[in-house]
Design a protein that fits this description.
With 509 residues, this protein is mainly alpha-helical. The protein has a domain of 224 residues. 72% of the residues lie in helices and 0% in strands. It contains 20 helices and no strands. It is globular and about 70 Å long. The two termini are 28 Å apart.
Length: 509
C-alpha cells in the first residue's frame, strides 16, 4: 500500500483505532464513567481526517483519482474497491455525528452496566467503521465485508441488557441478518458469474451491453439483482423484510436502537444508491416500479400496525419501517427521473438529493426522540405509553422536546422532516409517481394519530407519580444538539441540501 492509500483510508483507520483505544482505556481506567466522554473525544480523529479529505477533494471526483496535495505515482490497491468522494464523506459526517451524540446520551444509561462499558462503546465504534466503509464501497466483496462489520457488532449490542427480551432480539437480529446476508451473497455470486467482475464500474459496462428482451439481458443476472434487493431490504427495514424490527427495537438498549435506526439506515441507503445507480442503472427493466412498490408497502404496513402499539419502542420500530418507505419514495423518483437527477436546477431538489436530506432530518428527529425516551425510561422503568402520563409536570422541557420530535416525525413545520417530505413528494410528482406521492401524504396523516396519542398522554392525562425526571449534563447536551438540528433544518435547510446535492453529483452514472 502507498502512503496515499493510508491517507484515503485514514477516517476508517481512525475510527477502528478509536475502538481499540477505548478497549485499552477500559482495562486501565478505574473510573468507567469517563468512557462516554473519552469515546466522544476519540471521534476527533475520524472527524479531522474527513474534514481534511473534504478540503483536499477540490474539483476531483474522488481522492483515488489523485489530488494536488496528495498526488502519488504508486498504483493504488484501492481502485475499484472504494470511492472516497463527496458522497462517501457526506455519510462519514452523518455517522460520526450520530456516534458522538449516542456516546453522550449513553452516559447515564450505562452506569448500571459498568463492567461492559468498554465493550459497549468499542462495538459502537466498530459498527460505525463498517457503516463508513459501506458508504464508500464500490466492489461487491468490500460491500459484503462492510455489511458484516456493521451487522455483527450491532447484533452483540442488541443483547447488552442480558434479559429474555434482549436475548430474543439479539438472536432474531443475528439469524435474520445472516439470512439476508446469504441472499445478498448468492445474488452477488450470480452477478459476478454473468459480468465476470465484482467492481461496480465493470458491472455497469456489462449490464449496459446486455441485449435482448430478457430482464437485464439474462435471467441469472435478473435473479441476482432481485436477491440483492431482498438482502438490502432487510438492512433498510423496509417491507416485506421488516419482521425483525419491532422485536429488536423493544429488546435492545435504547441508545443502541436510536443509533441503529439512523446511522445503520443511512449506511444501508448509501450502499443501495451507489450499487443500483452506478452498477445497474442502465437496464432493460423498469425496477423503479419495484422500488415504488416496496416504498408503498413500507409506508402502509408501518403506519397501520403502529396504531395498535402500546409499547413506545415497538411503536418506533413500526415508525422506522414507514420512514424507510418515505425515503424509498425519493429513491424511486430518482430512478424514474433518469440521469437528469444529477443536473438539478437551483432550488428544485429532485430524487437522490432529497433522499440524503431526509436521512439527515430523520437522524435529528429520531435521535431527539430516542434520547428523550432513554432519559424517561431509565427513571420510570417502563416503555409503556400509558406510563408516560403527566410527563409535562415531571419535566416540562423533556416533554416539550419529545413532543417536538414526534411532531417532526409526522412532518409538521418548522422541522427538518417537513422540508424533507416536501422535497421527496415533489420529486415523486416530477418523476411521474403522483400516486406514490399521494399515498405518502395520506400515510403522513395516518401517522399523526399514534404520534399525537403520545403527546396527549404526556400533557393531558394526570401524572401517577410526582417525582421529577432528571439526567446528567451529557444526555441533556445530546438531546439539545439533536433537537436544535431538527428545528434548524426546518428553518434553514439550504446548507444541508447544498451538501446533499454536491454529494449526489459525485456519483458516477
Amino acid at each position: 500500500m502507498s502512503v496515499h492509500d493510508f491517507y484515503v483510508l485514514s477516517p476508517y483507520i481512525a475510527m477502528a483505532g478509536a475502538a481499540l483505544l477505548i478497549i485499552l482505556l477500559d482495562l486501565a481506567l478505574p473510573k468507567k464513567g469517563l468512557l462516554p466522554y473519552l469515546t466522544f473525544a476519540a471521534l476527533a480523529g475520524p472527524l479531522l481526517m474527513s474534514v481534511i479529505q473534504v478540503i483536499d477533494l477540490g474539483n476531483a471526483t474522488s481522492l483515488l483519482e489523485g489530488s494536488d496535495a496528495f498526488a502519488s505515482t504508486e498504483p493504488s490497491i484501492l481502485l475499484g474497491v472504494l470511492s472516497v468522494d463527496r458522497f462517501a464523506l457526506f455519510f462519514n459526517f452523518l455517522i460520526i455525528g450520530s456516534v458522538a451524540l449516542v456516546a453522550l446520551a449513553s452516559a447515564d444509561y450505562m452506569k448500571n452496566m459498568a463492567r461492559f462499558q468498554g465493550e459497549y462503546f468499542a462495538l459502537i465504534l466498530f459498527a460505525a467503521t463498517g457503516m463508513m466503509l459501506l458508504a464508500a464501497a464500490t466492489e461487491l466483496i468490500t460491500i459484503y465485508v462492510s455489511l458484516e462489520l456493521t451487522t455483527l457488532p450491532m447484533a452483540a449490542l442488541t443483547v447488552f441488557l442480558m434479559n429474555s427480551r434482549s436475548s430474543e432480539a439479539g438472536i432474531k437480529f443475528l439469524i435474520i441478518g445472516a439470512v439476508s446476508s446469504a441472499l445478498m451473497l448468492y445474488g452477488m455470486a450470480l452477478v459476478f458469474g454473468f459480468t465476470g467482475s465484482t467492481e461496480l464500474a465493470v458491472i455497469s459496462e456489462a449490464v449496459g451491453k446486455a441485449t435482448g428482451d430478457l430482464p437485464f439481458g439474462n435471467y441469472a443476472l435478473f435473479v441476482g439483482i432481485i436477491l440483492m434487493i431482498a438482502g438490502f431490504g432487510f438492512k433498510l427495514s423496509a417491507a416485506p423484510f421488516q419482521m425483525w424490527v419491532p422485536d429488536v427495537y423493544e429488546g435492545g438498549p435504547t441508545p443502541v436502537i436510536g443509533f441503529l435506526s439512523v446511522a445503520s439506515k443511512a449506511a444501508a441507503f448509501a450502499i443501495v444508491i451507489r450499487v443500483f445507480f452506478t452498477g445497474f442503472f442502465d437496464v432493460a427493466l423498469d425496477w423503479g416500479i419495484l422500488i415504488a412498490g416496496i416504498a408503498a408497502a413500507s409506508m402502509v404496513i408501518g403506519n397501520l400496525v403502529a396504531i395498535s402499539q402500546s409499547n413506545i419502542r415497538r411503536l418506533f420500530g413500526y415508525s422506522t419501517i414507514s420512514h424507510a418507505g418515505y425515503i424509498l419514495v425519493g429513491v424511486a423518483a430518482g430512478v424514474k427521473s433518469g440521469e437528469s437527477i444529477f443536473k438539478v436546477p437551483e432550488f428544485a431538489p429532485i430524487g437522490l438529493d432529497s433522499v440524503l436530506f431526509y436521512l439527515v432530518a430523520y437522524a435529528a428527529a429520531n435521535l431527539t426522540a430516542f434520547f428523550a425516551i432513554t432519559i424517561i425510561s431509565s427513571k420510570i422503568k417502563s416503555d409503556q405509553i400509558s406510563d408516560y402520563t403527566g410527563l409535562s409536570a415531571r419535566n416540562p422541557v423533556l416533554a416539550i422536546l419529545l413532543a417536538l420530535s414526534l411532531l417532526a416525525l409526522i412532518g409538521v413545520p418548522p422541522t427538518g422532516i417537513f422540508i424533507a417530505k416536501l422535497y421527496v413528494f415533489t420529486a415523486a410528482v416530477d418523476s411521474g409517481l403522483v400516486w406514490l406521492a399521494i399515498l405518502g401524504v395520506i400515510n403522513s396523516a395516518v401517522s399523526a394519530y399514534y404520534y399525537v396519542r403520545i403527546i396527549r398522554v404526556m400533557f393531558i392525562q394526570p401524572s401517577r407519580d410526582g417525582e421529577k425526571i432528571t439526567a446528567s449534563p451529557a444526555p441533556w447536551l445530546a438531546l439539545w444538539v439533536a433537537g436544535s438540528a431538527m428545528v434548524f433544518m426546518g428553518i434553514a435547510p439550504g446548507f444541508v441540501m447544498e451538501a446533499a446535492q454536491s454529494a449526489v453529483e459525485a456519483l458516477p452514472v
